[in-house]
Amino acid sequence: MAWFLLFLAGLFEIGWAVGLKYTDGFTRPMPTVLTVISMIISVVLLGLAVKTLPMGTAYAVWTGIGTVGTVLLGIWLLGDPATFIRLLCICLIVTGIAGLKLAA
C-alpha cells in the first residue's frame, strides 16, 4: 500500500509542477487553486508512504516520478525539446527508480 501511495504522490507532484506553468505566476485563480491542492495532496501522500518506506528511497522515487512525468508532459503539452540526451537522461532516472524499488 505504501508504494501505491508513493506512486499517487508522484502523480500529484507532476500535477503541481505542470500546474505552475498554467498559474501564470499565481495570477490565475483556478489553476492556482488546483496547483496548491495538488501540492498538499502530494506531500500528504508522501508523508503517509514514509511511515513504512525508507525515507531516502521514498523521496528519491517521489522526485523521480515527478521529474520524469513533468519532463514528458513538458515535451507533450508545452513543446519542450525532446532531444536524445534528454530522453537518455529520463531512461537513467527510470533505471534509478527501479533500482531503488528493488533494493528497498
Record the SSE blueprint:
Elements: H1 2-23, H2 29-49, H3 55-78, H4 84-103
Helix pairs in contact: 1-2, 1-3, 3-4
Query: Helix count?
Result: 4
Number of domain units: 1
In whole angstroms, the N-to-C terminal distance is 14 Å
Q: Mean of residue pLDDT?
A: 94
Order of helix and strand elements from N to C terminus: HHHH
What is the tally of beta strands? 0
Instruction: Provide the gyration radius in Å.
Output: 14 Å
Largest sheet: none
Class per helix and strand makeup:
mainly alpha
Q: Which regions have little confidence, pLDDT < 50, spanning 5+ residues?
A: none
What would you note in describing this structure?
The protein is built from 4 helices and no strands. Helix 3 packs antiparallel against helix 4. Helices cover 84% and strands 0% of the residues. The mean pLDDT is 94. The chain has one domain. The radius of gyration is 14 Å and the shape is flat. It has 104 residues and is an all-alpha fold.
